[in-house]
């Protein structure tokens, strides 16, 4: 045992250095992607995949941890963050289509892809179904990273994130069952399948809810920002580990905890400043972990096995796009008809094309038992399809959104906020200008010209705001809310400055927070 | 190798669960320590040590990683955070006493303790010197955690933190040399010692400066908050790993990087909001890591070896207090005489009694080679002394500060600053509110209500300030000092902005600094 511990520690030490290398590469890519103009067209995460593939091509392999462990380390924080930022209020409105996509859509995809592959290749049906199961769940991490970077509207994001966050449970159960069938260790039984699925999802939702509500009510009893922030981190990993040990879906459990803490716990148990801090903290964690995950996805490509599987990969891609079309347009239409969900055709098109596959698919493929002779084929096909979805679908989704003019349709609140931001910036400039006017070293005409320029723009902005408010009276409340948030932020930032300059020991609870 | 990887991964997996357990215990302790009134008297970190010792007594061992690895994981972020928040402006003023304490003080301690132990016990002199070297460096983590929680004044904190951050280099070099002597593998040579020490410290300062200034100038070229935040994390671990691999002092290197990024890089390369976010992020990391480290220190106690070494422990404690008295009072007096540093007797007393030992001492003791027959004795003695400094000295430092009335004056100033901070925040809010009043997009009743609310609170704060000044006329000077610091900060920040925007090459020396 002592030897194993040493080997393990060498592994950790070795990997610490490798992770530092991975991060350095990722941060370089991140910096280039924002500063070099032609790279700005490519979403940052996809650029990382490309760099990773390039490194793999040069046979530079960055980290040699098993995919299960990578998932255990990186998946919980990403899922928790997604849940934390998911608006339950919006998800509730689209619960029916999301549930249909996540359950029925995945099944259509598994059997459709499996059948197509078995028909057009010589791979046996059970193995084809395994490939189908690996590839049927859209990847929350990839989808969320892409949609956020592109700035897709609220509803599309909720539909896509909701589906991605909840369909893993279905795919993982189906996969486990199909592994049993493919290796001949288990016979199919509808009853057992349904019962397995219920336990898997039920334990996930149960543990997630218990931890989520438990922490929500706990944090209501005290106001300790650092403890509350730490608790969210412990909750993310703890929920995942406990649920997996109990035989439930860790993915579903973490998402549940995240949704509860983000939508309920953070409101009843945290002061606004803590909520903001925690949200910013998780935003950073998501950026940080994504920087690692997408580079590693690219870096794990095995070119040999890709080349050998070109034909089945092409068939699988066709099957994936076809079955997803059936699932999304069919179920979407059904939901529009039954539940009046009113998802428009352009939105359905984006849901169809934007359903990327990622780390979850890869992890499932890599967990195919070594005893199965077709294991390498499964891995090769899955990697090929994942790369296609990330690089081809991922890179073209932006154009698709533009062509469907879904990107232009910014929510009115967003437009309002932009005008407010512009007004705030110009007011600050004007104020600065007026303070300077007493100086004699700049010609007064310059001041007058600039002042009238800005004043004119400000008047126009004011008209624009008025116009927006007339169009949508709800924006009046929104304006008051914006201003109140602003005031609270100024107060809280001032305390933070006092702390940073060493004059105060700890931040004060904002006075304005208690006032309605 | 494949087997080793599996063993390593099992270790990581196993330890993830254990760390979650550790964190749950720590957060419970943190919450209790702020909510249960009698526990509020005990600094949180020391409460964690006590709980850890209790768990060890019940033979609950939480984590079985080697101390080297624990140091490699936990030390860099703690040291970086300490460096980031260290005010170079203040440290510069006390550079002479800090350097004297960190170099000469450590030597006095090593030889004094070694000689006392060798005289009064039967342990051979080289081993006694090893004990002395392990225990001679005050522990930055413990000291900083304690002083911050107690709210000790700025100057005492700088003196203590400065010493603790820089004396490790001396102790580690001395320890390495003494291990060679004790195991008979090396002969003493003054020349070799000095050259070793120079390389060790020089490489540390060199690598730390290179990385610190490199990142400072790099981040000046772009404004990407998440990348800059990630870079500080990469910098903390990267500096440590690179320097240790080059044979330098990782501790000194990380501190150097932290001081440079916190005092220079964050001013020229980050916008104020990023700087604040990064500071808050590191504050959280420090809390989080401290929650783990102090519990583990307590949990690692071996009661058997403590019991066997009771007599040498008592002698070592005596030696430690005696040699530190000579070092602090002697060198402090010398510095007061030569450099006019004017450190008062009560302050020296706190520096003497508050010099806690912690994780660095334990790590050094545990790294004594197994071939040395007295290894267990060394570990037992060092653990005993560390526990004494943490539990006895740590728990009584607050009373000492109160008796020397170093905390009272400070807490009144603190109270005054809190009111001032609140007034500044609300004045800023009010000003913002009044600028907005011309806008027509928010109902006027909202403005009037908020304005009267804030105005009322401001009047009350003004009364409170008057009352505090009447009670203690010294606060008038303090108020002037606060305003002067504020003006100086505005001036310095303005130059930093000019540098950041590329209009100035280097920061100007503040005009107000020269004025009394």
Automatic annotation (TrEMBL), chains A, B:
Coiled coil (residue ranges): 416-471
Location(s) in or outside the cell: Cell membrane
Ranges for domain Cation/H+ exchanger transmembrane: 28-402
Keyword hit for Transmembrane: yes
UniProt keyword list: Antiport, Cell membrane, Coiled coil, Ion transport, Membrane, Sodium, Sodium transport, Transmembrane, Transmembrane helix, Transport
Membrane-traversing stretches: 42-57, 98-118, 125-145, 165-185, 197-218, 276-298, 310-338, 378-396
A matching Pfam family: Na_H_Exchanger
The keyword Membrane is annotated on this UniProt entry: yes
InterPro entries: Cation/H_exchanger_CPA1, Cation/H_exchanger_TM, NaH_exchanger
Membrane topology: Multi-pass membrane protein
Family, per entry: Belongs to the monovalent cation:proton antiporter 1 (CPA1) transporter (TC 2.A.36) family.
UniProt name for this protein: Sodium:proton antiporter
Source organism: Phormidium yuhuli AB48
């Amino acid at each position: 045992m002592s030897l194993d511990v040493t080997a393990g520690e060498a592994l950790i030490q070795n990997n610490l250095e490798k992770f530092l290398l991975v991060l350095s590469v990722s941060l370089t890519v991140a910096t280039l992607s924002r500063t070099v103009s032609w790279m700005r067209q490519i979403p940052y995460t996809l650029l990382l995949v490309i760099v990773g593939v390039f490194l793999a091509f040069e046979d530079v392999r960055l980290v040699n941890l098993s995919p299960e462990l990578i998932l255990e380390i990186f998946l919980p924080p990403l899922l928790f963050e997604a849940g934390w930022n998911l608006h339950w209020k919006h998800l509730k409105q689209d619960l029916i289509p999301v549930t249909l996509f996540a359950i029925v859509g995945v099944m259509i995809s598994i059997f459709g892809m499996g059948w197509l592959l078995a028909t057009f290749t010589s791979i046996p049906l059970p193995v084809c179904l395994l490939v189908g199961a690996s590839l049927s769940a859209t990847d929350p991490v990839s989808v969320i990273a892409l949609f956020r970077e592109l700035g897709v509207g609220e509803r599309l994001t909720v539909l896509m994130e909701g589906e991605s966050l909840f369909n893993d449970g279905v795919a993982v159960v189906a996969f486990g069952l199909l592994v049993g069938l493919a290796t001949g260790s288990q016979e199919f039984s509808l009853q057992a399948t349904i019962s397995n699925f219920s336990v898997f999802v039920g334990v996930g939702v149960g543990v997630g809810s218990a931890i989520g509500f438990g922490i929500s009510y706990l944090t209501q009893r005290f106001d300790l920002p650092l403890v509350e922030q730490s608790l969210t981190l412990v909750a993310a990993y703890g929920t995942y580990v406990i649920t997996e040990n109990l035989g439930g879906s860790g993915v579903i459990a973490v998402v549940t905890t995240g949704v509860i803490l983000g939508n309920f716990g953070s409101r009843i148990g945290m002061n606004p400043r803590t909520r903001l801090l925690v949200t910013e903290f998780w935003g950073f964690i998501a950026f940080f972990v994504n920087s690692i995950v997408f580079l590693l996805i690219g870096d794990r490509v095995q070119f040999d096995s890709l080349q050998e599987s070109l034909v089945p990969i092409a068939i699988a891609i066709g099957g994936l796009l076809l079955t997803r079309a059936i699932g999304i347009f069919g179920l979407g239409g059904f939901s529009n008809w039954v539940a009046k969900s009113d998802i428009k055709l352009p939105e359905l098109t984006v849901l169809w094309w934007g359903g990327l596959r990622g780390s979850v698919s890869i992890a499932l493929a890599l967990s195919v038992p070594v005893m199965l002779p077709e294991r390498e084929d499964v891995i090769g096909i899955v990697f090929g399809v994942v790369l296609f979805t990330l690089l081809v679908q991922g890179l073209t989704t932006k154009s698709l959104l533009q062509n469907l003019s879904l990107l232009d349709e910014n929510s009115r609140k967003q437009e309002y906020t932009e005008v407010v931001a512009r007004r705030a910036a110009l007011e600050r400039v004007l104020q600065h200008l007026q303070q300077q006017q007493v100086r004699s070293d700049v010609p007064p005409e310059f001041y007058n010209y600039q002042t009238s320029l800005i004043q004119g723009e400000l008047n126009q902005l004011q008209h624009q705001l008025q116009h927006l408010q007339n169009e949508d009276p709800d924006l009046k409340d929104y304006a008051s809310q914006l201003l109140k948030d602003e005031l609270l932020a100024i107060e809280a930032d001032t305390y933070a400055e006092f702390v940073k300059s060493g004059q105060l020991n700890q931040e004060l609870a904002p006075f304005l927070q208690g006032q309605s």
